[in-house]
Design a protein that fits this description.
Layout lengths: L5 H5 L3 H8 L6 H12 L5 H15 L3 H14 L4 H13 L3 H14 L4 H13 L3 H14 L4 H13 L6
């Protein structure tokens, strides 16, 4: 199988990232949907099917099946960032933070603007008690997409918990 370059996933998305990053842009929701749609396309119908099966398994709460589908996807399309992020999510849901963090790292190497991966990294770091690095990850995620209420809440929670102390 051929590898699918990350640039194919993100080609032409700059205007959408600009819209998304502007908290006052009324087009942010469409921009977010367009970016997500682009990220979910590998360029191969077979790989897109594996991705959809992984997503469906996640939605059903079947982390074991999701991990299997996303593992097959990452094996056959190692340059498709959404596959790594999907498996990172499945690992996180299964409580496997080490493998999740490793897949997040791979996701971010392929797509550094992946706000979901950054938010996931923040959640893992916060769970591990590394509030300083968790806050940094959440802030990077929020800078890319300031429309994430859960990330905004996490930043506020960490700021409040550590007011007056150096993180």
């Amino acid at each position: 199988m051929a590898a699918f370059p990350a640039s194919a996933e993100t080609a032409g998305l700059e205007p959408y990232f600009k819209e998304l990053a502007d908290p006052n842009d009324p087009g942010w929701s469409r921009a977010e949907a367009d970016i997500r749609r682009a990220w979910s396309r590998s360029g191969s119908a077979a790989m897109d099917l594996l991705f959809k099966r992984g997503e469906d398994a996640l939605d059903a709460g079947d982390t074991e099946a999701a991990i299997e589908h996303f593992t097959a996807l990452t094996d056959h399309a190692p340059d498709f960032s959404a596959g790594w992020n999907g498996r990172a999510t499945a690992y996180f849901m299964a409580g496997l933070y080490g493998p999740s963090a490793a897949d997040i790292a791979r996701t971010l190497k392929l797509e550094p603007r992946h706000w979901g991966a950054l938010a996931g990294l923040g959640a893992i770091l916060e769970e591990m008690g590394d509030d300083k690095r968790a806050l940094e990850a959440y802030q990077k995620s929020f800078a890319l997409n300031p429309h994430q209420q859960d990330v905004k809440d996490a930043i506020a929670r960490l700021d409040k918990a550590h007011q007056g102390t150096a993180l």
